[in-house]
Amino acid sequence: MSRTPLRRVSQGSLFAVSTTDPEQSGLNFLAAHVAELADEAENLQGNAEALKTLSESLATFNESFASWLYVMNMNALTTDWLQAPTDASFELAKRRTERDALAAMEAMQQAKAAAAAAREAELTKTMEQTEMDITYAGLTTTTASVAASKTGVKKKPGKPKLTAKEKRERSIEIEKVISCLPLEFRGSDPNLRRNMEGVIEGLLNAPAQTAKLTDLISPPDLSQARVNKCLIALVNRKVVQKNSSTGTVLYHWQGI
């Protein structure tokens, strides 16, 4: 009967170490390694406990956040939001728009009224200046006219006879001129419009369409003040040209 021969003992085995190093007999040489392993195991346990605490914190936060989202969702489904636009809101917006439009219209009307007042003031100023310019010439011409009427030497020429076509063209031209004048001459004051038509007729019927202020006076309707006011409006619109270079104030018809 054969027997298996014994193997040589490994140099790194516990038996070999215990036989070669008497101070590390048995398992004493493992004490340092076991202590290091215990420290690492303790560190591992601490890290595992920290992970457990973090997991519990996350679970608590998720539960609280989920509860808050649920409450917000239920609140949105069950609460009436009073700030949402209603029919009353649209009606209020419509009224506000109408009020703003009315305010803008009133502001525009006030601006137009201010502009009209400014034009009226300018017209009055020009009228006063013109009256001062023609005072002397008007008085002289009036005196001469009175003397001529007494002696019967000279009379104002009568209106020329016009055909139906010429009258129609004359009426269209007068209407075109009046439409360019201020509102008071366009119909707000019928008497002033009639006076303006008479002044324009006098200028168009005058020789070479040039006349003096006194030539256009025709009492009681066309007084000197009314004729002067109409001439000032026509001069401002450049329909009539004023010329006083000869010493006598003459008005030349220019047209539109």
Q: Would you kindly provide a written description of the structure presented here, covering whatever features stand out?
A:
This is DASH complex subunit DAM1. Residues 27-54 form a coiled coil. The chain is mainly α and 256 residues long. It has a domain at 108-150 and 159-253. It has helices spanning 14-20, 31-78, 87-151, 164-178, 190-205, 213-216, 224-236; strands spanning 210-211, 240-243, 250-253. It has a three-stranded antiparallel sheet with strand order 1-3-2. α3 crosses α7 (224-236). The longest helix is centred in the middle third of the chain and has 65 residues, at 87-151. 11% of the residues are buried.
Keywords, separated by commas or semicolons:
66% helix, mainly alpha, 4% strand, three-stranded antiparallel beta sheet, DASH_Dam1
Topology, pairings included?
Elements: H1 14-20, H2 31-78, H3 87-151, H4 164-178, H5 190-205, E1 210-211, H6 213-216, H7 224-236, E2 240-243, E3 250-253
Antiparallel strand pairs: 1-3, 2-3
Helix pairs in contact: 3-7, 5-7
Subcellular location: Chromosome, Centromere, Kinetochore; Cytoplasm, Cytoskeleton, Spindle; Nucleus
InterPro entries: DASH_Dam1 (IPR013962)
Main location: nucleus
Share in β-strands = under 5%
Fraction of helical residues: 55-70%
Distance between the termini: 154 Å
Category by helix and strand content = mainly alpha
Which strand order do you get reading across the main beta sheet? 1-3-2
Q: Could you give a short account of the major beta sheet?
A: 3 strands, antiparallel
Number of helices: 7
Please tally the β strands and state the result. Answer: 3
Name the poorly predicted regions. 150-155
